[in-house]
Amino acid sequence: MSDFSVFFVTAGKEEEAARIGRTLVEEKLVACVNIVPRIRSIYSWKGEVCDEEEVLLIMKSRSSLFPSVRDRVRQLHSYEVPEIIAFPIAQGLPEYLAWVLENTEE
């Protein structure tokens, strides 16, 4: 397993995304959150096809913190079933990855 991961979370509003991102950085669960506004999501929910504007949060952290990030996002998020997924970082600039370590806590 990779020591580092990128976590993706979507939110309905930029304010909610910023609140979630700021909280996770302040709590040292993630080192950085990029907020990408105005993505378009087409998905099936409760038997209907939905076409909505959302906001994407891209978070960098330690892979081992995923369970804590997942649980904290669920507490902070307004969605019944928020998207919370992780991708391992296969490679990265060593200095950047060291910075991620310095800015997150187990």
Task: Tell me about this structure.
This protein has 106 residues and is α+β, with helices and mostly antiparallel strands. 31% of the residues lie in helices and 40% in strands. It has helices at 14-26, 66-76, 94-102; strands at 4-11, 32-45, 48-62, 84-88. A 4-stranded antiparallel sheet has the order 2-3-1-4. Strand 2 (32-45) and strand 3 form a beta hairpin. The radius of gyration is 14 Å and the shape is elongated. The model has no long low-confidence stretch (mean pLDDT 97).
Which stretches are low in confidence, meaning pLDDT under 50 for 5 or more residues running?
none
Query: Level of helix content?
Result: 25-40%
Strand-pairing-aware structural class: alpha+beta
The count of DSSP E runs of length 2 or more, i.e. the number of strands, is 4
Distance between the termini: 16 Å
> What is the average of the pLDDT values?
97
Shape: elongated
User: Which range does the strand content fall in?
Assistant: 35-45%
Give Rg in angstroms: 14 Å
The main sheet comes to: 4 strands, antiparallel
Helix count from the secondary structure assignment = 3
Please trace the helix and strand order, writing H or E for each element: EHEEHEH
- Placed side by side, the strands forming the largest sheet appear as 2-3-1-4
